[in-house]
Amino acid sequence: MTIALALLTSGLxxxxxxGAGLLSRRMPAARVVVCSQGxxxxxxxxxxxxxGAYTEAxxxxxYAFAAGCVGPLALLCFYxxxxxxxxxxxxxxxxxxxxxxxxxxFAVNGERPGALQYAGxxxxxxxxxxxxxPRTGGAPVQRTTILLTLGAALGFGTVFALxxxxxVTIPGLFLALLVQxxxxxxxxxxxxxxxxxxxxxxxxxPLATGTVPDAAAxxxxxxxxxxxxxxxxxxxxxxxxAVVGLVDTAxxxxxxxxxxxxPVTVAAVLASLYPVVTALAARGILKERLxxxxxxxxxxxxxxxxxxxAG
Length: 311
Prior knowledge:
Number of helices: 13
Structural class: mainly alpha
Number of strands: 0
Low-confidence stretches: 209-232
Order of helices and strands: HHHHHHHHHHHHH
Radius of gyration: 20 Å
Strand content: under 5%
Largest sheet: none
């Protein structure tokens, strides 16, 4: 059951990441986060009310609250990185976050890293260097993209550890996911409003001096304010955004269940394989091609993550 749930988690996360990456190229990442998590929260609210899961409220919900605070920031970093760089590089690098729940397992259980863990760390570092550094035959992945991805990895790992502690029952899991998603919307909304205000000030200043505003700044911060066509594009994307939120929430649920039915290490390893799904989707649908160094670096990063969690 642990294997089946963890593999299902990797499939769901991989598809959600691919969809979010596409959407973040059409609208601001903050809007993708708020709308997707809002749709998930609405569905979870119905589930909690129908199952009576609200009776499971307890001190463990603080873990869900904390996960809700960290999650939107991780998603913003990740979706922005997916919009900026190759999905086949960004998604594998983000799996480095699995080191956090594994590290917590070491601390709680009194375990110490073994040879495979040390090998995994070394392999992952080499992979990051190859995926993000300069190379012949093509331009490097932007440093900002790499930093955003590593920030997302740190956030994801923290969320994995927190959500695994947020409940001990199935109804409790529904309630924990609702709390997490509700806080996601609140935090993401603050980021979205702050970003749009910043964009409004940035575009208003040049107009006041008679110069032409930066078109990239306008389109980046006001994807549905730049005219009817952009507004129509944003509204037409809402169903897809909602699906991304629901799929991502389902993945969080199956991951939490997989940690209940077997070793966390096994669940973390198999769930961390989701970049394979994202990369295959990008290759099959977008015809995305990676430079050889990028492909090797991404593969090493993924291999290092597996070694780190499996050792």
